[in-house]
User: Fold this.
Amino acid sequence: MFSRLLSLQGFSAVLWAAASSGVLAVMWVLVRQLSDQLHPLEITFFATLFGFLFSCINVFKFGLSIFQTTRLSHHFYRGCINGVAISAWFSALTLLTLADASALNLISPLCVSIGAVFVLKEHMGPRRWFALGVGVLGALVVIRPGFEEVSLGIWLVIITAFASAGQRLFGKSLAATDNLTTCVLYLTLFMIPISMIAATFVWKWPNYYNYLYLVLIGALLNLGHFTMMKSFSLADVSALEPVNFTRLVWGALFGFW
Assistant:
């Protein structure tokens, strides 16, 4: 019975992780479309701002206890790292096709898995390494024909991959001690000043139609990170990283569309 419960929990974690990848892929499409009218750094600021406001709605359910944490510094570090990651990623989406950017970003699961072994002391069995290796090889098959030189877009995706890996390791650690909504709230809160500073250099007031996109992007950012944290609370981060290769499928499908 206990092993059955563990298998059900693991399956649930995989579903949450897959949902996170799907939600974030939809958000990437909206960012790419909106980037024709607003700079990606400004989109990043509004995404984090509206994402934080959506998190604050949980105050009605949990009260002010949602702000309680004994690991504020960890939330701060995670927010700063993810602020860099999302700013670089949104900028990269304007320079590369969605499929190519998604494929190159799949070096992040490898970084996360290695970090989980050495930082979080998780065990990586042969099956996990095999699944991760197959995913990386599949991504390389897609990437190689499309990249002839190391352009700015590629460097931005590489920055995104390493920064994203760092925030995911922080996220897994925080999921063990803090409420999931608290984790998402502080993540978006500490991302606001980072993204705001960058956005001031390219500021342009959005129109009313742009705000509809920005609110939706903020909602998807919030939902994507909540589902990610939910998966972290149910399974090892190294076990979930192969699921993130579904981003390649989402990126190719949405990029074609």
Q: What stands out?
A: The chain is about 75% helix and 0% strand. The first helix runs from residue 2 to 34. Residues 1-6 have pLDDT under 50 and may be disordered.
